[in-house]
Design goal:
This protein has 12 helices and 11 strands. The chain is α+β, with helices and mostly antiparallel strands.
Length: 462
Amino acid sequence: MKGIFGSFRVKLIASLFLVVLVILTSIYFVINRTTESEFKDYVIKGNTNQMKGIEGNLVEYYEKNQTWDGVGTLFQDQVSDQLRGNRRGVGTGAGGSQNVALVGLDRNVIAAYDQAIVGEKVPPGAVGQGIHLEVGGERIGTVLAGPLLHGELDQAEQQFLDTVNRTILISGAIGLGIALILGGVLFRQLTQPLNKLTTATEKISSGDLDHRVTIESYDELGELGESFNQMTENLQASENIRRRMISDIAHELRTPLTVLSGEIEAIREGIYEPTDAKLEEIQEDLNLLNRLIEDLRELSLAEAGELQLNKGRTNLSELVRRAVDRLQEIAGEEGIELRGETPENFPALNLDADRILQVLNNLIKNAIRHTNEGGEVVIEARDRSADVLVSVVDDGEGIPPEKAKHVFDRFYRADSARSGDGGSGLGLSIAKELVEAHGGEIWIDSEVGAGTTARFTLPKSE
C-alpha cells in the first residue's frame, strides 16, 4: 500500500480525481439548486397564467369593497370554476402543486383554495411569477398558483426534475471518468521522463558517467533532460580532468624525484663527488619541486575561492616596469627584446600588487618561452571606460586554434617539446585564477606564424 501511494503518478491522479470531484460536486449543487428554483418559478408562472379568468372578478370585488375582507368564499368559487373549465385537478395539501392563493402586498396569503395556508407568507421570488392585481395603477395583490410554500411539485413535475438531476449526475460521472483517463495518459507522459531521469540519476550516482537520458519533448522536461545531460558531461569532464591532473602531478613530481634519487645514489656509491656544483644541481631540483608544490597550493586555493588578496591602490604602469626589469635578463639570454609600453598617467587600481605581478611574470615567461631568438615581447596597457586592458604580445610561432583553447588547463603545454623547460605547466592556470579573483577576464589570441597575444582585464571598481 505504501509503495502504491508513494508513486508520483498515483499522487497526481489522486489529486486530479479530488480536484475534478470537488469541481463536479460544486457544479452539481449549483445547477441542481438553480434548475430546481427556475423550474418551480416556471411551474408557478405556468399554473398562474391559467388563473387569468378570475382576475377581473377579484379586481371588481376590491373596487366595490375597498378591502379583501370576506373575499375567501368568492376566491374559492372562482378558482373552482376556473379549474373545472381547464379540466385540471386540484392539490389539496398545504404545498399542493395546484394550490391557488391570493397574496397581499406583504406576501401573506389572504385567500386560498386550501384554507390551511391562509396567513402564511410566500417566498419573495414567487411573487414575481404571479398575476398582479391593480386598481388605479396601484397594486392591490397577486394571484399565484403552484408550489407556493414548501415547494412540493406534483408527480409528473417531480419526475421531470429528478430526471434532470439524474442526467447531471450521470454526465458528471462520465466527465470524471474521461478526466481520469485523459489525466492518466497525460500523467504517464509527464512521469515517464521523470522515471528516465531517476534511472539516469541512479546510474550516474553509481559511477556510470557515460549514461545519458533521452527526453523527446520541447517543454520544461526536455530542458531539464538537456540540463541533466550537460551536467553529466560536466561531471565526466571534471572526472577526466581530476584523473589527468593526478597523473600529471605524479609525472611532474616523478621526474625531479627520480633525478634527485639517482644523483644521491650516485654520490653514495662514489660515482660523483659531493662538490658544490653537484649540490647546486640537487638544490635546483629541490627548488623545482618546491615551486611545483607551491603552484599547486595556490591554484587549489584560488579555485576554492579561499585565496587571500591584499588589495590596495596600485600603479599598474609601475607593476609592468617591475615585471619587465625582473625578466629582462632572462629575455636577453634568449636573444629576445622585452619592453613595456604603458602611459605614465595611468589610473591607480585597487588590486593585490604581488598577485598581479605574478600574473605578469607568468604571461611574460610564457611569451619568452615561445618566442624565437631575435623576436620581441611587448607589454601594453590601455585605459578603458570600465576597466583596464593589459596585453602581452609576442611574435613567436603562435598556437593552433585547437590548442589555444586549452592553454589555461592545468599542466597543459602547447609544445610538448618544451616540457623540460623548467615550467610546472601551472603558470597560465594560476594567472587565470588570479585575474578572475580580481573580477577580471583573461584570454588568448593567437595565429600560427604570427605570434600570440595574452590579454586580461582588471575592473576599475574592484
